[in-house]
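Changelog-adjacent note: as of this version, every example in the card shows the full chain rather than a window. The one below runs 102 residues end to end.
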Amino acid sequence: MMAYTSFYKGIAFVEGGITNAKVIRPNVSAKLGGFGSHLKTLADVKDILVEQCISSNANAVINFKYGQKTKLFAIDDMVFYGSGDLAVLDQQTLQELHEKFD
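Full-length structure tokens:
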């Protein structure tokens, strides 16, 4: 069974591993927090990871994990985070992911 996948700005975000993926940069992460962070979204985190993919010539983030946290008594202190491995997927794998998840 293939892990859940979404596409954002041409990059595949795969919530699991892909056996034939070539990992370019393992364990990358993005985190947005602090003042005004309540106005951020998962898309803002993905923007950071997309830029990292582009600079590394990767076309996917595999083992993608994401979420948000808030502090109990802080009104404007929310943190959005995402992490995974930057990877290159072959065209056949990308096509299969598009067919299954688009």
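Structural remarks: Helices lie at 42-56, 91-101.
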